[in-house]
Design a protein that fits this description.
Number of domains: 2
Strand content: 5-15%
Largest sheet: 3 strands, antiparallel
Helix content: 55-70%
CATH topology of the largest domain: Arc Repressor Mutant, subunit A
CATH superfamily of the largest domain: Winged helix-like DNA-binding domain superfamily/Winged helix DNA-binding domain
CATH class of the largest domain: Mainly Alpha
Order of helices and strands: HHEHHEEHHHH
Length: 158
Amino acid sequence: MIPADLLPLLAKLTRQMQTLRSRNLDHLGVGTGQTLILREIILKYGITQDGVAGSLHLDKSTVARAVKRLVEAGYVEKRRDPADRRSHILLSTNMARVLQPQFEMVDQSLAEALTMDFPEEEIEQLGNFLRRASANVHHVLHSPPKNRLSWMVHNHGF
C-alpha cells in the first residue's frame, strides 16, 4: 500500500531542498534551475543546448531561457557548432568554472542536512530507492502514450 502522503512529502522535500540551495547560492545571481544547467555545462564543456535538455530531462525552451540568462550573466559562452551550423555549443567561462567547488560544498551540505541522523545503511538504501524511483518514472515518461495509458489502466483500473 502506497502511503497517501508520499507525493506531498516528496513535493515538500523538493521545495525545501530548493530553498536551501537558493539560500546558499543566491549571492551568485543564478537561480536553482540555472545552477543545475550551469553545472552540466561545466562538466560537459562544449555540450549543445539539446544535449543539456536531454541529459537533464528538461524542456528545450526551459534550457534555452536559462542559457540566455547564463550568457547574459557571463557564466556561459555560446558558439555555433562547427559540425552542425544550426546548433550551438555551450562553453563555461572561467567565471563559471571557479564556482564548481562552491556547488560541491553546497551539495555536500544539502546531502548532510537531508541525511542527518541516518545510519550509513539507511543512507545507502535511500540512494538506491531514489535511483529506482527515478528510473521507474523515466520509463513511464519515455514509453509510447499507448503504453502509458495501458500502464495506468493495469495499475489503477482507470
